Amino acid sequence: MKIIVLKFGGTSVGTIEKIKKISKIVTSFVNKKYKVIVVSSAMSGVTNDLINKSRKISDNFNTSEYDVLVSSGEQIACALISGRLNHLGYKSRSWLGWQVPIVTEGTHRSSRIVSIFKKRVLAYIKNGGIPIITGFQGVNFENRITTLERGGSDASAIMIAKFFDAEKCIIYTDVEGIFTTDPNITKKAKKIDKISYEEMLEMASLGAKVMQPASIQDARLNRINIDVKSSFKNIPGTLITKRKNINKNKIITGISFTKNDSKVTLIGVVDKPGVAASIFEPLFKNAINVDMVVQNISADGNKTDLTFTVKSEDLNKVEKLIKNNKKIRFKDILITKNVSKVSIIGVGMITTPGVTYRMFKALSKKNINIQVISTSEIKISVLINKKLVTKAVSTLHNEFKLEK
Amino acid sequence: MKIIVLKFGGTSVGTIEKIKKISKIVTSFVNKKYKVIVVSSAMSGVTNDLINKSRKISDNFNTSEYDVLVSSGEQIACALISGRLNHLGYKSRSWLGWQVPIVTEGTHRSSRIVSIFKKRVLAYIKNGGIPIITGFQGVNFENRITTLERGGSDASAIMIAKFFDAEKCIIYTDVEGIFTTDPNITKKAKKIDKISYEEMLEMASLGAKVMQPASIQDARLNRINIDVKSSFKNIPGTLITKRKNINKNKIITGISFTKNDSKVTLIGVVDKPGVAASIFEPLFKNAINVDMVVQNISADGNKTDLTFTVKSEDLNKVEKLIKNNKKIRFKDILITKNVSKVSIIGVGMITTPGVTYRMFKALSKKNINIQVISTSEIKISVLINKKLVTKAVSTLHNEFKLEK
């Protein structure tokens, strides 16, 4: 039995016309003898509208009721898709998270799928039915509706693919796939045919908004092939798969970047064990995401300079928290707004020496000054002036010949 | 334990502001030491919007998916109410039909509540919680969401009042209660303090749109006191109760009327057993509602004249069905459009002779011609020219002193 999971995002089911359109995608797989499981998000706009309602009711809306509220969005979308498939003469029904059931643990608004009881859905599939399962939601052991943490409906689709041993999971969305970089930055950006989980994780967390890192990590752990495709154009998308499935003919797979970062440097911090923890503790407690962190070696072995980046919208709060932090002492604080992080990503760099050098040289030729550097096994990130992002991305795109 | 059921209709929860307002009604009862169960409809407009979506998907939308779709409306309203009560510092949670569970039988879109498993909700109430239960929906033995037949959320509220042995069920709506007649017809129309189930049934089925007859019948069978009140004004409403609870100081309780009826008379019908059934069978099969039926005694014992009324919008269809009906023979068909039925209703007429005479005399004094008469134990209906409805209602309102 060839099971395939088709997941449709909010924009793919955003209107009645789009629901009619994606229903034909579903039937095309059924006609190719696949056993299809559909996972759907809410129609685009619906979830935001519900969240707005909750905000008007309370600035501290009860989280379990929040889950009851927003889960109605997927319920509506799934009933409509199923209704359409029935209209087209196919056997189909919606399965809400609690009906499957998709069992979750953890707190409301950020639950995790721990188990999917597949018996009834599987029997339905074997009888020729097309189940339309609500994404982004489940039910907890108290029999209450839950919604998932980061990853949302993608996470549902991937866990369903795992529990049902699906051959593949196709994520239908409003883009054609994963690109070497943002096509708005350079027209040379090219769709990537295949990308490894690890690269995709770096791409996702660095700004490519197609899939949430948590779902990619789930797919990676469970070795599920994910195809990211457009629901509007019938053209090949990007396959996210394990490294072995990819012919490594490129050093760099993609370039990602951030916008609106700010750099904070503490000068002359008294360097003693635990000082970094003391600096970041209040930021963590206020849910402020700290990105690049660089600590210079202190010249006299007593004092050090520490640099980190945060989102610019958090900057005021960060400045206040640092200045009010009684646990740390430093000489000065320097703040640089309008910086951006540009990263090159590729599993190929593991086996190819000189990538860092090529990157720095290419940027330096264009007079792009590097403020901070941070590297991992498969990525190199540099912090630069925000105004130079387009130039830097284009330069690196050319340098590593990503358009080919 | 004094349990009270508060049911809010769509207009009572139609906006965020209204949800905030009715939440205060709920807490006022909690503060008076009542154990409150809330039953809510969907926010007004939401259900229609969902139905419109289903129509765009299919002109024959799958009924079980229809139930999944529209049931989301009450889910949203209940989550918001519960969220508001939590915001105000009260312990509250939503209970969807399947969570209670409210078990239904029958087909989708027109299920009936057969059982309510109250154990968990009752424990919650005893622990000081305010359950907010979705009206209009339940779950069937296949674990699928169902919606109810006629009566909708009112039926849910009344069945919940029954199963939880509630002291009273208050139906909050957008009117102040039940009036002696439509205030748009005569300004003398007065709110009724108490009305018997039987009278209310006649009022409801004759045009007063406040409550569906099916729910009143449920209340009657289970002897549940219903208070119909405005959710916007804090003033007494109308109590629907058993006859014994009412001081019968009035002969007539109210006057109702229809609009847009048509009268059909078949002249010279060959009178043989089963002929009436033959006439009405095709109308029944086409879901056409036949209202007043009068058959005159045939002069020669062989032929008879038969008169009945239907909604004017059904008239063309009725005419075609009658003329194409091979099973009946008649001399002629007479059609009178633009007639209305005016009814006086009151349990008092059982014990008071001469009511019919007073009604006919009052109408005749105003030159209002009566075309057809039909009576039951507690009501007298007459068919008149539609143009004369206002005059007739005012005349009868005065005659029976309903303004006092």
Protein model, in words:
- 2 copies of one chain form a homodimer.
- With 404 residues, chain A is of the alpha/beta class.
- The radius of gyration of chain A is 24 Å and the shape is globular.
- Chain A starts with a strand and ends in a 5-residue tail after the last helix.
- Chain A contains 11 helices and 19 strands.
- In chain A, a hairpin with a 2-residue loop joins strand 18 and strand 19.
- Helices cover 33% and strands 27% of the residues of chain A.
- In chain A, helix 6 packs antiparallel against helix 7.
- The mean pLDDT of chain A is 92.
- The interface between A and B is large, with 37 and 37 residues.
Oligomeric grouping of the chains:
homodimer
Top CATH class of the domain at 3-174 in chain A: Alpha Beta
Shape label of chain A: globular
Report the CATH superfamily of the domain at 3-174 in chain A.
Acetylglutamate kinase-like
End-to-end C-alpha gap of chain A: 38 Å
CATH T-level fold name of the domain at 3-174 in chain A: Carbamate kinase
